[in-house]
Amino acid sequence: MIPRTATTTSPEETRRLGASMAAGLEPGDVVLLVGGLGAGKTTFVQGVAEALEVTDDVTSPTFTLCQIYRGRLTLLHADLWRLERLAEVIDLALDEGLEEGGVLLVEWGEGAEPLFGKDCLVVTFEPGAAQSERRVTFSARGERFAARMEVA
Ligand SMILES: Nc1ncnc2c1ncn2[C@@H]1O[C@H](COP(=O)(O)OP(=O)(O)OP(=O)(O)O)[C@@H](O)[C@H]1O
Ligand SMILES: [Mg+2]
Predict the structure, then answer these.
(1) Distance in Å, CA 141 to ligand 1 centroid
(2) CATH assignment of 8-148, given 3.40.525.10, 3.40.50.150, 3.30.70.870, 3.40.50.300?
(3) Which residues are registered as beta bridge partners of 110?
(4) Which of 4, 46, 144, 146 is the most exposed place for a label (fewest CB within 10 A)?
(5) Using one digit for the tens of pLDDT, what is the confidence trace for 99-129?
(6) Measured CA distances, 75 to 14, 32, 130, 133 (Å)
(7) What gap in Å lies between CA 106 and CA 71, rounded to an integer?
(8) Atom of ligand 1 nearest to the CA of 133
(9) Burial of residue 144, with CB atoms counted within 10 A of its CB: 0-12 exposed, 13-18 middle, 19 or more buried
(10) Could you tell me the CA-to-CA distances from 135 to 19, 39, 55, 87 in Å, in that order?
């Protein structure tokens, strides 16, 4: 089940949180990652990749737009820090197999809400009280993820 909220106190813990969410991912899922610079979005995706049995190192796609990793499911890892490239990201994601069963995770994902916001999972990262603390909130949009959420 996907928790509603979690607090992590290290990058490793954020990776584990990503891995536990990934255990419940299904083909075609879209996850929007929201949070400022250094919030932990890429760290979280590293945990997702591990759980999906991706063997390549996951790095920030800020300059490459969309990285494609082959694992148990195809992981499409995009970054909308440059929002003007939204259309390119979508084309790439669709070309690279989102519709054939990949999963798409988008950093600065609020930019993709007009397209995917009705049926996706939004994961928000906020700084906590301590420097290495992150508060992570999971929010199901639409029916797709609703049944996978822990009861509040
Ligand atoms: N609890 C934590 N979870 C995740 N990262 C943490 C945590 N505590 C400290 N950090 C540090 O915060 C940074 C998170 O970087 P990361 O690249 O994951 O952020 P990001 O949200 O992807 O940033 P960007 O918007 O630049 O892509 C890393 O340097 C990591 O070591
Ligand atoms: Mg990043």
Answers:
(1) 25
(2) 3.40.50.300
(3) none
(4) 146
(5) 788 999 999 999 999 889 899 999 999 999 9
(6) 18, 13, 31, 27
(7) 17
(8) 1
(9) middle
(10) 16, 9, 28, 30
Kindly report, residue by residue over 56-73, the tens digit of the pLDDT.
999 987 777 788 999 999
Joined tokens for residue 125: 């990262």
Relative to the CA of 46, which ligand 1 atom is closest? 18
User: 150: which DSSP letter?
Assistant: P
pLDDT at 88: 83
Is this model's pTM higher than 0.85 or not? yes
Q: Whose CA is nearest to atom 23 of ligand 1?
A: 38
Please, are residues 74 and 102 in contact by the beta-carbon 8 Å criterion?
Answer: yes
Phi/psi at 60 (5° precision) = -65, 130
CB 106 within 8 A of CB 88: no
Burial of residue 72 (number of CB atoms within 10 Å: 0-12, 13-18, 19+): exposed
